[in-house]
Every structure is written in C-alpha cells, then in structure tokens.
Design goal:
The chain is an all-alpha fold. It contains six helices and no strands. The longest helix has 34 residues.
Length: 183
C-alpha cells in the first residue's frame, strides 16, 4: 500500500494558507486600514500588505493545485468505481475554479487600488465621499470578493474532509457495491 502524504500535504496546506491568508486579509488587513489616521494612506497601507502576501498566496494556490492533481491521479480508480466520489470531485473542481477566478479578479482590483496612490478612502474596501469614482467602484467590488474567495476555498476544505470520510474502508465497500448495483 502506498501513501500520498506529500501530495495530500501540498493540497491541504495550500488550501489552508489560501483560505487563512484571504480571511486574515479581509478581517485584519482591510479592517485595520480604517484606523490609519491619514485617509490618503489607507489604500496604500492595505495595498502594501496585500502585495507582501501575494507571492505566498500564489505559492499556496500552486501547492494546492499540484497536490490536487496528484490526489486525482492517486485516486483515479476510486473515482471510477466508488459511488459519491465523482460527484464530490466535480463539485470540488468547480469550487476551486470559481475560487481561482475570484482570486484573479480580486488581484486585478487590488492592482487598480494600489495604482490609486494617495486616493482618500475610509478603508481598504470602503470609499469616502472624496474617493474617485473608479477607485470607489473597485473598492465596492473588492468588499464583496474579500468574503467570496474564503467562502469558496472553505467549501473546498469541507469537501476535502468529506472525501476523507469516503476513504474509510466501510465507505469504500458500500460505495463500490452501490455503484455495481446501479449497473
């Protein structure tokens, strides 16, 4: 019997960092930007923090994807013969794709906010009356995305836990028998 400790660790740690970093950014970094005393420093401060996190986030996502591909390969037989594994895998892939999309969109918005320089704001994702319209629009979109991405990645983590349960010997046996009974 072989184990998949390395690929499972890449998959799980990558997703955990992706989830946790985005959640901390939404709560901690974006929230803390509101207490920066100078309104023209709020976007810059948050943008600098997100800029520091971006390379690690990219590495975390890459690790998750490499680990996920490895797990797909390692479990290809179960995927084909155990009832429930295919549907769960498709859902997990769809959520991962959506999270990649929201992460990319958020990154593009973040770059736009970083380019805004000294634009005044109430906070990283909260415009003020003096915030330029294009910057305010990006902030309002970012205000939503800051919660959507961790929700999607968190859902991937939940499905990962569910798939772990499907690997219990009794679940494998029942899933294979159920799939054979349907044929």
């Amino acid at each position: 019997m072989s184990t998949n400790t390395v690929i499972r660790s890449l998959h799980d740690l990558g997703a955990a960092a992706w989830f946790g970093g985005n959640l901390m950014g939404a709560v901690g970094l974006n929230g803390a930007s509101k207490v920066v005393s100078n309104p023209t420093d709020r976007l810059k401060t948050a943008s600098a923090g997100w800029g520091k996190w971006a390379p690690l986030n990219t590495a975390a996502i890459g690790a998750h994807l490499v680990g996920g591909a490895g797990l797909l390969w390692a479990n290809k037989d179960r995927l084909a013969i155990q009832q429930g594994v295919g549907a769960s895998t498709i859902a997990k892939l769809a959520l991962t794709a959506a999270a990649l999309g929201t992460t990319a969109w958020s990154g593009a918005l973040g770059a736009k906010l970083a380019e805004a320089g000294d634009a005044p704001a109430e906070g990283a994702v909260t415009p003020s009356a003096a915030t330029p319209a294009d910057v305010a629009k990006a902030q309002k979109q970012q205000k939503v995305l800051q919660w959507v991405t961790p929700a999607l990645v968190g859902s991937v983590l939940v499905l990962n836990a569910q798939q772990g349960e499907l690997q219990k010997p009794e679940e494998v046996k029942q899933g294979i028998l159920a799939k054979l009974a349907r044929r």
